[in-house]
Amino acid sequence: LVDGSAFKDDDGLTDILVPEINTDSDIKVYPNPTSDHIVISLNSPEEYQQLDIKLYNMNGMLVYQAIEENNALVNLKDLGLSNGIYFIRIETDNIIETTKIMFSSY
After folding, report:
1. How far apart are CA 57 and CA 45, in angstroms?
2. Starting from the edge strand earliest in sequence, which strands make up the sheet with 50-56, in order?
3. Separation of alpha carbons 83 and 32, rounded Å
4. Spatial distance between the Cα atoms of 51 and 69, rounded to a whole number of angstroms
5. What is the pLDDT of residues 61-88, one digit of tens each?
6. pLDDT 10s digits, 6-63
7. pTM for the complete prediction?
């Protein structure tokens, strides 16, 4: 490190780490954007997978939580959500994924 900076190597160049993007997600959430509902499905469902579903608003507040089996349909329109961006966290026994969804009731 040069000058105690966490971002510079001995060669003086700045290194930028880019996280790997997983395009082969095990969980699909669609349609996105949506004005009504979302479908959550596993690409390769095993015998049984319990889905722990949590929906958060942009402030990090939990606005919806449910436990479903294998695939799920979540009716966002019935939740009284405001238009905007939400984060949905889906957890199974061996997968944890967070996806951004856009909701507009128009």
Report:
1. 28
2. 62-69, 50-56, 84-91, 96-103
3. 13
4. 6
5. 999 999 998 888 999 999 999 999 999 9
6. 545 556 655 666 545 455 677 899 999 999 999 998 876 566 688 999 999 999 999 9
7. 0.73
